Amino acid sequence: MNTRRFGAAAGTVVLALGLAACGDSGDSGAGDDKSIKIGIKFDQPGLGLKEGNSYSGFDVDVANYVAKELGKTDVQFVQAPSKQREDLIATDQVDLIFATYSITDERKAKVSFAGPYFIAGQDLLVAADSDITGPDDLDGKKLCSVTGSTSATNVQEKVPGVQLQEFDGYSKCAELVSKGQLDALTTDNTILAGYAAQEAYKGKLKVVGAPFSEERYGVGLKKGDTELCKQVNDALTKMVEDGSWDKAVENNFGPADFKVDESVNPPKLDECS
After folding, report:
1. Alpha carbon 170 to its chain's center
2. Whole-angstrom Cα distance, residue 65 to residue 254?
3. Helix-helix angle 226-241:244-253, to 10 degrees
């Protein structure tokens, strides 16, 4: 995969970090010790999954890499449900959030973002024998999504007649779709691929494969903390340049046979503000 797309932002990030090092360092949201609290999802196979005391997924791999580059040796993962992410940052329960956190103008009014570190697309997860091929087939259908995500809003705008049901996590949605109690689950194609690849759902669920949005995964952090934002962006740039980003993509998405859109990935970094 071409890992040079971060290049345009890399120079700006490195320069900004150099200037910051020459001035007053200030306080960053991650503090000055060796520990850091990072919000992730606990129920997203391939992205953020907690099993016992272990954590796995693409978001976890990126979070661990960034934490190491920030000089943090004690990473404490905190569950970050979609509807709680802004509050977790505002109340200092986490320093950073890597949780399929799409960058939107509405969210930027409350928190700041580093990245994006991945660009996904919203899609549908349906029963293997379903004839649903996209949002246009959802009129009158029972659709599942997660409270606080952008996915439900996107579909409701496209198909006002959809019957939406929302839960706190995607696992419940996938279970109900597999049992035929709901017609589809909508969220990012990366998340859906993870569920479709689970042993319990193989041959029962499928991803439609017709993305209808662009979801830019950012690293959530305290509003206005540009110093920490620049440090995170510098780490993301290094991750791409040394091949670790490609390795994380292959390790986490390869088993699900998920095809990453190389026309937009790795993505170009936004400027910190």
Report:
1. 14
2. 19
3. 80
Ramachandran angles phi, psi of 77, nearest 5°: -85, 135
pLDDT tens-digit profile of 73-120? 999 999 999 889 999 999 999 999 999 999 999 999 999 999 999 999
Report which DSSP code applies to 183.
S
**d(C-alpha 113, C-alpha 122), whole Å:** 20
Indicate the class that CATH gives domain 122-207.
alpha beta
Tell which residue, 210, 76, 60, 194, has the closest CA to residue 130.
210
Query: Could you give phi then psi for residue 200, rounded to 5 degrees?
Result: -65, -20
In this structure, how many other beta carbons lie within 10 angstroms of the beta carbon of residue 31? 14
Give pTM, 2 decimals.
Answer: 0.79
CATH topology of domain 7-120+215-256: D-Maltodextrin-Binding Protein; domain 2 (3.40.190)
